[in-house]
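Ticket #406: bound-state structure for uridine-5'-diphosphate.
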Amino acid sequence: MHALKDYESVVGAEIVEELRLLSEKTKGLKVQNVNSTAVGGGVAEILNRMVPLLRELEVDARWDVIKGGEKFFKVTKKFHNALHGKAEEIGPNDFSVFLETSEMNNRSLELAGDILVIHDPQPIALIQQKNKLNAKWIWRCHIDVSQPDERVWNFLRPFMDRYDGSVFSAPSFSQELPIRQFLISPSIDPLSDKNKELSEETVRGILEKFQIDPEKPLVTQVSRFDYLKDPLGVIEAFERVQKNVDCQLVLVGGEASDDPESVEVLARVRERAAGNPDVHVLAIPSGSDLEINALQRGSTVIVQKSIREGFGLTVTEALWKAKPVVASAVGGITLQISHKYSGLLCRSVEGAAYAIKQVLQNPEYGKRLGENGREQVRQNFLLTRHLRDYLLLFLALSHEGDIVRF
Ligand code: UDP
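RESOLUTION: The complex was predicted; output attached.
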């Protein structure tokens, strides 16, 4: 695990010094994070890196995970999709399952701290313990809830409204709420195994391990196997590209333990890819960070053809590796990519195919897009900026109504 000092070589000593100065004011604060999975997906990815560094800054940070059975996670997956605006069949039984598991977690999960940061809808009902603790409660919503399914939204609202504040990743993701709102975009850790520099031999070795030809142009999408990531659409776009350019596709994903749908999606993707030897479908265990890093670095183009997206950390990771990225103009992707400057945005299978072809046929253009993308991430989406925002949030919460002097 890296120490803060190590980040100086990436972001400069001043940024790290600023964090230390700020942390003088937040020293000793007890902050508990709660989410629904320890592995898989963007939230776990961030907490994994953030919590140790907060501790180095002497914030007494911890991270806990709620428990739930398959039934509960099926329901919360439907809620997740519905909050993103996807049509889902949701009945009264789903709400009962959610409430029952929430009650069980309310009985068994020990909560303590000055600030509780509850991530996403799955653990939202922990707020029912609000009166037991003298703490500030934050609901950290990583989803774009700008056009939610009304039933799910209305069901969750009474919980949401009891929080002291909410955090969204972007202004366009949120809704009018009676509680304070903070805007904090996510980040990646440039020194993690997922993002650190790798030698060419390492990259090559890993590609070969997966039977990918290191000499042939490679198009990659890294994503949980989820319909909202549109893996089938990626294959369709790729097959259009293949008609003009000899290239290969990798769809790599794992299974998030809170996502039962992924098994079904993976089976459909495998079925669709069968018969095309240039399409590699890789289901690899979570925590395969070096492998993901190498696959991203070994790619010629990275695709993220999501139908809906939260922030889209896979895009951040690819941009940081100075890769040309072709991605849907949804969710946080539009915050990361300025079209034709730091990547290419698309809105359809045809659009994705056209953009992928453009980059494959014009490597110089791809290189320019990638370099601009990397700069965009350096300035806005690295972990050090995220830590600063969290420290400022903690300060703002512990000085409510006061003037906060930095
Ligand atoms: N990821 C991974 N292995 C996989 C698929 C995804 O490590 O097989 C990581 C990916 O590199 C990224 C995160 O999971 O860091 C996904 O975050 P994102 O915001 O893109 O999507 P989410 O899964 O949260 O919808």
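RESOLUTION NOTES: The mean pLDDT is 95.
TICKET STATUS: resolved
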